[in-house]
Amino acid sequence: MRKIFLLLSFSFFVINAFAQNFPFGAVTFDDNNFDRNKIDSNANAVVLKEFGTSSIQISDRTGSFELIFEYHVKIKLYSKEGFKKANVVIPIYKDGTREEFLNTIKASTFNFENGRFVETEMDKKAIFTEIKSRYWASTKFTLPNIKEGSIIEYSYRLESPNLFNFKTWEFQSDIPKVYSEYLAYIPAVYNYNVSLRGFYKLSNNKSEIARECLRVNGVPIDCSKIWYVMKDVPAFVEENYMTAASNFKSAIYFELSDWQMPDGRRQIYSKTWKDVDYELTSEKTLGSQMRRKDLFKETIPTITKSATDDLSKAKAVYEYIKKQIKWNNYYGTRSEDNIKKALDMRSGNVADINLSLIAALSAANLDTEAVILSTRDNGTVNKLYPIITDFNYLVAKVNIGDKSYLLDATDPLLPFGLLPLRCVNDQGRVINLKKASYWIDLTAFQKSTSSYIMDAKLNADGKITGTITIHNTGYEALNKRKEIKKYNSIDEYVEKLDERLPKLQILKHNIINIDSVEKTLTEIYQIDFSPMGSLGNDELNFSPFFINPIVKNPFNLNERTYPVDLGAASEERIIISIALPGKFDVKEKPKDLAIALPNSGGRYLLKTNIDDNLITFSQILQLSKAIYQAEEYPYLKEFYSKIIQNQKSDLLLKKVK
Fold first, then answer.
1. Where is the Transglutaminase-like domain (predicted)?
2. Please, what's the largest Cα pairwise distance for the chain?
3. Is 570 helix (H, G, I), strand (E, B) or coil?
């Protein structure tokens, strides 16, 4: 349906703090002509106004306490890249009979045509729901008739049985916001811990008492009516090497501490770790499964028969479990049913596999514990008080002598003691069946290394022939093994590799230790290539940066307000040696370079040397830390900028007559 509105001669765009919700469809001249340069000249779309409110009410639909969340937003679209904001996705949580209910969806597009605003209402048939998993669904819709310059507006109401987290409000999103306001009504019988995360602070914040906002069994309950306002909020731009964006976006979070009804009933949610330890170690799907040593009593002697010490025993058990249960790609801190079923079915979630590993290691008389954690894409956990729903993953910890090893048996290509990168996220909580739980740092135990050694010669026909040997360890080896395993054979992998390297031709290959994951992955390639741009018989011109060139700076933001998290320290070495047919002079070459990051954060060394008829070119790139703080970002950006600039140089050799 299309409606026409006369252009309003006054504006509702400039609103005072705590203005509460705004009328739907009240588009103005100021809305239509908002200058994005005021907030972000590169923005593809801008939130002009955004308002949300949450309250706890007794639902007419269920008769139970429900969290009622109402959302209303108006967005200006500036370019086709901004059209994605017209594709709206609303996640819906469901757990058996506890299910969120979405209703009252209203959406329209406004275009300014011939001096008037023309409204195109969204047809209700455009709304559909997609089931994502047994716990999540998504309601989706797309606003109609969008163009460059359109203003889109939509609102909805969500009823949720999940009172624990109230409703998080994100002030930051992937586009800038001119004005964002959130109003929360919290009944006096509920106590929430409230926290503001992120770099940016509130523009305004106030609270007052809302009398008799709720009735419980006929008893009137007052509410705290709290406003949170943030103005001129920059877009949150995601860049490489970061954990969950939710860790860094400016947002308001709520976590239920306790509730107390007028009749005296009380429920405490902010428990101590001592309380949680007892619950977890007593749970049938966690603690009870850690105790299932009986499942491995008969097989452990066979598994460990060749082991000469506790470390080799632990490695044997680890390899055994990796082969017994295939990961079904589900995370979890609890067994789906029990580990015996997972062993029988030879399939299970993360917890099934790693609880089986814990039980088997314990059966081998090794000191073993569980570690619950939150993956990198799930965010960091609250350490002030236990929030078990913050955790979504479980791994094993085995203690041998004075060393501890964190183990995840979900991936056959993971070597002993190396967690998948998804698990390297701040800290985890160690769960012991007999002792109090404690925090542990989740870090990569070894740095990621690569080395490329090329030994070649320049032939009379102008071609360079030789051998490239590549060694990888740590995450570099893991990623390379996964890449190779995608193909049906090594030959197919090498064929695709050859296609991706047009300057080189691979004549022969040999890849060693693909399945021996505890050893260094080694690739040996016999190659030939013609130097780029031969300038005649007496001169030779080519770029020595044909192995892993850095062509794009991974750090391009003017300012990054969150850390650069690589997961692990890394080192890459490249050594190229070319024997020349006779003596040559170096006429031009890349500048020898030695640059370093502050606080021993890393270094880059580049050197070219010619000795008689042998030219040697060497590079070392070291990043000595897994995490660089936001204030170190400018140094990283400049570090890579200098490397890239220097790699634009070629090597020019002239034959000595």
1. 301-380
2. 105
3. strand
Edge-to-edge order in the sheet of strand 427-431: 403-407, 393-400, 367-373, 427-431, 438-441
Nearest in space to 416 (alpha carbons), one of 301, 286, 307, 333: 307
CA separation for the pair 320, 315 (Å, rounded): 9
Q: What's the whole-number mean pLDDT along residues 464-484?
A: 96
The CATH class of 2-8+18-267 is: mainly beta
Q: Which helix (H) or strand (E) holds 88?
A: strand 87-95
**Cα 579 from Cα 225, distance rounded (Å):** 78
Average pLDDT for residues 332-336, to the nearest whole number?
95
pLDDT in tens, 240-253: 999 999 999 999 99
Q: Show the tokens assigned to 625.
A: 């830390």
Distance CA 218, CA 204 (A): 35
Asked if residues 86 and 109 have their Cβ atoms less than 8 Å apart, the reply is: yes
Q: Does residue 166 have a pLDDT over 70?
A: yes
Q: Out of 392-396, 449-453, 650-654, pick the least confident.
A: 650-654
d(CA 541, CA 650): 7
Q: For residue 15, what pLDDT is reported?
A: 31
Residue with tokens 């991936």: 411
Instruction: Decide yes or no: CATH 3.10.620.30 for domain 273-441.
Output: yes
Helices (H), 20-175: 29-32
User: What pLDDT does 96 receive?
Assistant: 67
Nearest to 622 by CA among 600, 642, 644, 647: 600
13-22, 178-187, 291-300 — which is least confidently predicted? Answer: 13-22
**573: which DSSP letter?**
E
The candidate with the shortest Cα–Cα distance to 74, out of 183, 152, 174, is: 152
Q: Which residue has the tokens 């029990």?
A: 338
* Placement of tokens 């996640």 in the chain: 91
CATH of 448-655, one of 3.30.390.30, 3.30.390.50, 2.60.120.1130, 3.40.350.10: 2.60.120.1130
- The answer to whether the Cα torsion of 457, 460, 463, 465 is positive or negative is negative
The pairing of strands 128-131 and 136-142 is antiparallel
Beta-sheet pairing, 45-58 with 177-187: parallel
Report the DSSP pairing between strands 266-268 and 204-216. unpaired
Note the helical H segments in 334-446.
339-345, 350-363
Say if pTM beats, i.e. exceeds, 0.90: no
pLDDT on residue 95: 72
Q: Any idea where the domains of the chain sit in the sequence?
A: 2-8+18-267, 273-441, 448-655
| Residue 327, C-beta contacts closer than 8 angstroms, at least 6 positions apart | 347, 348, 349, 350, 353, 410, 411
Q: Which 3-state string (H, E, C) describes 227-264?
A: EEEEEEECCCCCCCCCCCHHHCCCEEEEEEEEEECCCC
**Alpha carbons 621 and 88: distance in angstroms, whole number:** 43
Q: What CA–CA distance (Å, rounded) separates 459 from 530?
A: 10
* Nearest C-alpha neighbor of 490 from the set 516, 511, 472, 504: 511
Count of CB atoms situated within 10 Å of the CB of 289: 25
- What value does the CA radius of gyration of the chain take, rounded to a whole number of Å? 31
Provide the 8-state DSSP code for 141: E
The pLDDT of residue 346 is 97
